[in-house]
Amino acid sequence: MGDQWWFCLKHMAVEPERGCPDKDRMGPYETRQAAADALKTAADRNERWKDEDREWEGEAAD
User: Per the record, which residues fall in region Disordered (predicted)?
Assistant: First the structure.
């Protein structure tokens, strides 16, 4: 297995596997850049899921 990267929510920084406790971070990610983009990725997914929930409920998505 290759290197894994995490995004620390406590320090708002990318960390290698050895870092803060898992409860304080998002990951693992395969690349340092993917970990750096963790908050944007999560926000994009949340927006997409919100739209899917509206469609499920019979409402039009924005």
Answer: 37-62
Q: What is the pLDDT of residues 5-50, one digit of tens each?
A: 999 999 999 999 999 999 999 999 999 999 999 999 999 999 988 8
Kindly report whether the peptide bond that precedes residue 21 is cis, defined as omega within 30 degrees of 0: no
d(CA 10, CA 21): 10
Tallying the residues shown for the chain, one arrives at 62
Q: What angle do CA 52, 56, 60 make, to 5 degrees?
A: 70
Q: What is the pTM of this model?
A: 0.75
Q: What are the structural domain ranges in the chain?
A: 5-56
- Between CA 4 and CA 47 the distance in angstroms is 26
